[in-house]
Amino acid sequence: MSSRNTNLITGNAKVLRGINRGMILNIIREKQPISRINIARLTGLNKSTVSSIISELLKDDLIFEEVNEDQNVGRNPINLSLKLGKYYVGAINIDSSLTRFAVADIDGSVKGTSSFETESKEQNKFIEKCAAEILRLCKNHGISRLEGLGVSVAGIVDSEKLTVNFAPNLGWEDFNIGALLKEKLPQVKNISVGNDAKSSALAELWFGSHELDLSNFVFLSIGQGIGSGIVVENKLLNGEFQASGEFGHMIIYEGGELCTCGNNGCWEAYASDRAIVKRYIEKKPGKIDHSVDFIAQDIIDLAKKNDAVAIEILKQTGYYLGLGIANIIKAIDPHAIIIGGKITQVWDIIYPEIMTIVKQRAYFGKKKNIKILPTTLTTLPRLMGAATLAIEEIFDGYKITA
Question: Model's pTM, two decimal places?
Answer without folding.
Answer: 0.86
